[in-house]
Amino acid sequence: MITCKGRSEILRMERAALIVQEALAECVLACVPGATTEDIDRVAAQGIKSRGGKAAFPGYRNYPKTLCISINDEVVHGIPTTRRKIRSGDVIGLDLGAIIEGYYADAARSIAVGPVGAEAEELLRLTHAGLCAGVEAVQVGGRIGDIGAAVESVARRKGYGVVREFVGHGIGTAMHEEPQVPNYGPGGKGTIIREGMTLAIEPMFNLGTSQVNMDRDGWTVRTKDGKLSAHFEHTVVATAHGPVVLGFGRYAEGRLVPGAPALSEYPVAASATPQHAVPSSAASPSPGVAASASASRTAVA
Predict the structure, then answer these.
(1) Which of 132, 167, 280, 295 has its CA 20 to 30 A from that of 289?
(2) Does residue 204 contact residue 222 with C-beta atoms inside 8 Å?
(3) What is the pLDDT of residues 174-211, one digit of tens each?
């Protein structure tokens, strides 16, 4: 069932989303060569707890950690471990969720640790641009398919693979609610977007094929051809004034700021951590569960 949230509910989700964004910012700063992915998970757990939130991922479908951290060819749902160390040149996806008073928020961002090649930089930049395009398509009276069509149009500029097995989702009193939000079209199809709908939009672009494989751990998803992947996500609410991204102070009593925030509005601005984050020239991101989508089966991310 699709639910539309009232102001008090969305304000709780805004608080949860702010916690996620601030904790993710601390994870970005902790992603230095030599750190283990388990180290970053501890930063995420403390970041949520210290702000009065509850981590959303631990125990969800038996997921064992607070953070999903996916490196290079890993698309989503990488499990932190003491055995995996971060290296200079890695492209890292960080995906995190939090709960406040029973309401969820979910976000992700991808970063580069140290210098990376031009192809990787452009993949990061355009995946974020795909997220922004998807956000802008959240218009009351429009269709869910408009979001996917907008995201996919960005990927097509460079011939990137758009992951189809994992999609965005509704979010609110559960991590994954209806409707599913694919990262591909066609536009003009699917559920009508209504005021108060809250959606997690999360494009995953691959440098090569769109096809993915699942690791033996039952969680880690990686590109079939071993090429790089990037992932960004926002929790968004549809309002009569346009889409509002939660977690950036854009939804508050007496204040609505529609549209997608620029990278400079993230708690850790790109320009503040050039060795870790998406290049400042960039234009303005959970554990999966099986779900049905028309005649096929896919999974929400």
Answers:
(1) 132
(2) no
(3) 999 999 999 999 999 999 999 999 999 999 999 999 99
Whether the CA torsion 135, 162, 222, 264 is positive or negative: it is negative
Q: Does domain 7-300 have CATH number 2.30.290.10?
A: no
| Single pTM value for the model | 0.90
Domain-wise residue ranges, the chain: 7-300
